Amino acid sequence: xxTVDRAARLAMVAHNGTNRDGEGNILYVVHPFPVVAMLKxxxxxxxxxxxxxxxxxxxxxxxxTDAPEEAIRDLDVALGPEILVVKIADRLCNTLDFxxxxxxxxxxxxxGYGEPLFARIxxxxxxxxxxxxxxxxxxxxAVANGTV
Length: 148
Prior knowledge:
This protein is mostly helical. It has 9 helices and no strands. It has helices at 3-14, 32-41, 50-58, 61-64, 69-73, 82-100, 104-113, 115-118, 127-144. The radius of gyration is 15 Å and the shape is globular. The mean pLDDT is 85.
């Protein structure tokens, strides 16, 4: 099993039976899927970016579960700027979730808290795709909040 598959399995096991805050009966384990999908849309792949996708699967494992730190260390990934890219994807996905839930003001506030992240979009091959997604979400926010 490769690192990305092990990370996905760890996230599913660690989040098993937990629900997303404020979202009723939606299992938490569904949250990493759109984050990983967004990263893949930006051009990240299991072959060339396994660390980034592994971090995406596990970005809340230590924070929101009882999984031991050793579980993450066992993935044997060296973390670097991938964390910033994953947190940007997470911020955009969560903003879209708030819009889908009919909470445009909450989405706008949440997106705004991410501005320091967006200002640090890494200078990487994927920067254009990341910025394009940020602008698309910003446009959806403007429409939902009646400012366009």
